[in-house]
């Protein structure tokens, strides 16, 4: 494999991993914490409860889009505010995410990695790539 292929495959691996993790976090809120429970947690932080529903939608739909490689740059950037919100929510629990209540290291890391994904684009095996090749062939 040449460097270009390695970069495209590595970018795809990052994108797919981020997508799976986002889906898992969204579904955790649905099936473990429940949507009303997640809304109650958001309210306990002083946030409107409906933001829990928005967060779940962004995590699940955004995660699916990332796995598919659809609008990767836009989706990655759209997910950053969710992770910055999670960073804020966990800020009082210290740095390490293994602390009681979860620290802020993991959500901040995830926010930075989403920005990196936005910079890199979709990589290989992406709907975006197929669409770009089709548009190029049609031109």
What does this structure look like?
With 139 residues, the chain is mostly helical. It contains 6 helices and no strands. α3 packs across α4. The longest helix has 29 residues, at 3-31. The model has no long low-confidence stretch (mean pLDDT 94).
Set out the fold topology.
Blueprint: H1 3-31, H2 35-44, H3 50-68, H4 72-90, H5 105-120, H6 127-138
Helix pairs in contact: 1-3, 1-5, 2-3, 3-4, 4-5
- What is the gyration radius calculated from CA atoms? 17 Å
Our count of helices gives 6
Order of helices and strands: HHHHHH
Major beta-sheet overview: none
Note the gap between the termini: 29 Å
Weakly predicted, low-confidence segments:
none
Mean pLDDT: 94
- Helical percent range? over 70%
Shape: elongated
Structural class: mainly alpha
Tally of extended strands? 0
Would you kindly provide a brief summary of this structure?
This protein has 139 residues and is mainly α. The protein has six helices and no strands.
What structural keywords apply?
about 140 residues; mainly alpha; elongated
């Amino acid at each position: 494999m040449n460097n270009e292929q390695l970069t495209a495959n590595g970018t795809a691996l990052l994108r797919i991993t981020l997508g799976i993790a986002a889906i898992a976090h969204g579904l955790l809120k649905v099936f473990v914490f429940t949507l009303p429970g997640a809304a109650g947690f958001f309210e306990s932080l002083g946030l409107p409860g409906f933001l829990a529903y928005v967060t779940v939608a962004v995590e699940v739909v955004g995660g699916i889009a990332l796995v598919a490689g659809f609008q990767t740059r836009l989706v990655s950037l759209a997910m950053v505010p969710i992770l910055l919100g999670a960073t804020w929510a966990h800020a009082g629990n210290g740095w390490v995410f293994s602390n009681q209540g979860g620290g802020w290291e993991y959500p901040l890391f995830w926010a930075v990695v989403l920005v990196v994904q936005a910079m890199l684009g979709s990589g290989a095996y992406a709907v975006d790539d197929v669409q770009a090749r089709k548009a190029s062939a049609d031109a």
